[in-house]
Amino acid sequence: MRVVIAGLCFLVLFLSPVHLMYGESDSQDTWKELNRTSDQVLQLVKQEKLEEAKQLLDYFQTQFVKADYEDRKLSMTSLRTVTTSYERANQAVTATNMGLDERIRHVTEFRLVVDAIVSEHHPLWLHSETSIMHALTRMKEAIQTEDHQGFQHRLNEFLNHYQMIRPSLTITLEPAHLQQVESQVSYMENFRMERSADEVENHLNLMEETFTALFAQVKEDSADPSLLWVMFTIGGMIIASLSYAGWRKYKGEKSKVKVKE
């Protein structure tokens, strides 16, 4: 019985969608290389190796031109987003009077955009959930304690976090969903000084609900179907094995009763 189960498990793993994809296309290899390159650029900027980062950005540009945009189903809006983010990253590594934190912020934005295109499952920008939600909580705390200066400071922190992931959202989200998020953030930014504390707190509650639903939905949508397939298949095998064992036990006990009779 153990040999049979082991054999079935091997077949499940071997025949799963991951293994059925025996070889990757040149297009997939190109996009993965672009993703790795964007990560290397970010690491170099963090180490303040700006000349090397610039060389890699130049390499990225040449490779990006060769990429198959149809393979990623990129819209013109997505292409403009990548281009704009690339230009900001390029400026970040060439500017002479930009602080390190700002350089890192611009290149991180670029890194997240590229990953949002390449990663079909769980894009990197989802890791910003803690920072975004924590910033919203601190804004509410500042409003509740009537710390107006602290609120403005927390709002600026939130906007910095949001602006860093915003280009990635334009790639991942449907336009209507993006517009909902954008309108709520813009309202808070534009009317920060013109609304009562109660109005601001109510709007922050709405933003918390929106961003909580946003992160949850993208996590659900980006779940790897191949892993779900394996889980369901193995689960079915386990149930079948237990049913078989129960049937054997029942048959054995029934035979014992007949022998006694």
TrEMBL record:
**InterPro entries cross-referenced by the UniProt entry:** Spore_YpjB
What superkingdom does the record give? Answer: Bacteria
Alphabetical UniProt keywords: Membrane, Transmembrane, Transmembrane helix
Which parts of the chain span the membrane according to its record? Answer: 227-247
Give the protein name, as stated in the record: Sporulation protein
Q: Which organism is it from?
A: Halalkalibacterium halodurans
Taxonomic lineage of the native organism: Bacteria, Bacillati, Bacillota, Bacilli, Bacillales
